[in-house]
Amino acid sequence: MNRLLMSSLASNTTKAYAVGLQAFDQFRLNQQLSILWPPPSNHILMFIAHLSIQGCKQTTARAYTSAIAFKCKVLGNGDPTKHFLVGKVLEGMKRQNNNRDVRMPITLEILNQILHKLPVGQLPCWHSRAYQNKPYKPLGDGIHKPIGLTLDPVNVWILGSSIIKHATVAASQRIGGTNLSIPNANIWWQGYSGMKLLDLVPKLKYLKGLKLQSPPHIIVVHCGANNVGKTRLDRLLTMVHDILSQCKTLFPKTKFVWSSTLPRITWRYSTNTKAMNQTRTRVDRQAIKTMVSLGGAYIKHPQIKISHTQLFHSDGTHLSKLGNDLFLNNLQGAIEHIMGVKTK
């Protein structure tokens, strides 16, 4: 059914809906509102008011409410965006935004001035904040760009612990499926409960030996948190460097991406949550340093914090449905960026 629902929408519509739903859930999270579906009409009204304050166009607000309406209908609920007040505030937003555009047409002189002000290879601010990575491959002329990929299917492996195992299930239930709505991507998910760093190289060797598909263009690794508290920190930092180097040797032409480990409310080997999360961040720093030195990239998940308990499963370790949605959005955005997929 998910496949048929996906086929009913244009790819651009699917992406727009995903962005709108993410923005709505993030707003409710920031405002400490309950994540309810169907959402109460006052949540939608507050969201539209927030978009207006942020300077968004009425067309953006209407697109986001269309995404909310679509999800409600898919879930078999009524459409709360048809509420009288929702229509009126959207109309009011349109009237307020109906200002004449008095900007001058851009000239060659202005364009040259802009180009001289722009630093080479600068990322859009959204990518800079979300990933803080360097998914760029330098060319001979010093200009940087995302790694070039052809129109052939791009093989992506996502390998990791039970976080990935649960994310696979969550992705299969979303619009876009396990390929995360990424055009031309062929994503192979490999999540293993209890996976530790020492399992990484053997797993990759096993998957490589299966020869089920061509070598992957990209491998996303999400692993390491299960070692925290069990392995001494100095040993753990050395392991991270050595194991990631072995992975690169095993797949020399593959772009490796480190997905930062996630914080936990509950840890298996200690009740000192603060100390365990500090250790985890040190492991991430070492992994990121190594990955960048190997020509790879990395992803951060800044929205997922232990203070946002609604993002976590009741076990305090795994993610809730909303947490998985945020995690998957981060993976999708990073993979699109590395592939050079243009998104609106």
Automatic annotation (TrEMBL):
This is SGNH hydrolase-type esterase domain-containing protein. Keywords: DNA-binding. One of its GO terms (molecular function) is DNA binding. It comes from the Eukaryota. Coiled coil: none annotated.
